[in-house]
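Our preliminary data section would be incomplete without showing what the modeling component actually yields. Below, a chain of 354 amino acids is followed by its predicted structure, encoded as tokens that our downstream tools consume directly.
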Amino acid sequence: MLQVKIKKKLGNFLLDVDFSMDGGIFAILGASGCGKSMTLKCIAGIERPDEGRIVLNDRVLFDSAKRINLPPQKRKVGYMFQDYALFPTMNVVQNIQAGMGRKPDPKKVREYITGFQLGGLEHHMPDQLSGGQKQRVAMARMLAAEPEVLLLDEPFAALDSYLKWKMEQQMLELLQKVQTPVLFVSHSRDEVYRLCDTVSCIHQGRMEVIEPVKEFFRNPKTKTAALLSGCKNICAVEAMESHRDGNWLWTSDWGVGIRVSKEALQARTIGIRAHFFTKEKPSEGCYSEFPVGEYRIMEDPFEWNVSFRKDRSCEWLQWKTAKTDWDPSEGVPEKLYVKEENLLLLDIDTDNRR
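Predicted structure:
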């Protein structure tokens, strides 16, 4: 188990993270500059936190109160950098041996060469390898040190979409084979959804939620989580006075009242995924309608992306629909609809129950 509770100040930025993981692939999802990579560097011993404690399988790696700060080589932590950081003057075999310390085991080196499909590349230098081959060498070198946890820092960030997909498959196969716990840093929601078991979002240095991946994307709890999960339509709301026809939240940015159940009045922010708007008025249940006063249509390869708003005083919303479901030649609907069950209720105020 990895337990991390640390703080580190960098100018006006404060990294303040508190989490634990025990097996599987744990993701830290966040925008650039939010503190993701710094968290990994603190765990690996490359950076020193100002205060806190890091424990790996009952071994204390860092404890500011007890003045414990193990050097990187004694932490049993495997760290894969974004660019893989292979030694440029070493061939494949030598790079793998470098992970084993002063007495590399030729038998184990051969096992890694075979297991990571690097046969025939033993004497190739890093600049002679493809992206996928570099990744496998970096993974083999990291595992050769027999780490107790793997830290992956945006390993697919520099790849095009097709190569990224292939590399993800290879990476997932390797991770399933070694069964070592993984801390995976990314700003890509798609990578996290496909590869990880648990996810935490980090915003301006602070972790907000820790949840199973499927639940995080299905029902984000905060505005930051909703944004990172890909929701484009987000608006602050306030409860309106009770009406005989139901309970309503007012969206000042959109100029629309949202009809909700009483429990939903605790929400401080509303999110609506672009695919959740419908042209057809729901025949039953609680729903809200959105007037389409102005609109812009953009074409994507497989869907239509329509930006719309009530009038010029309002913010734009986004509606996405498959090309098989609608065509602009049919005309843009005068209204779009959203069922209450498809609303994302964010930043719930648990202190003020109505």
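The mean pLDDT is 91. The first strand starts at residue 2 and ends at 10. Preliminary results of this kind motivate Aim 1 of the renewal.
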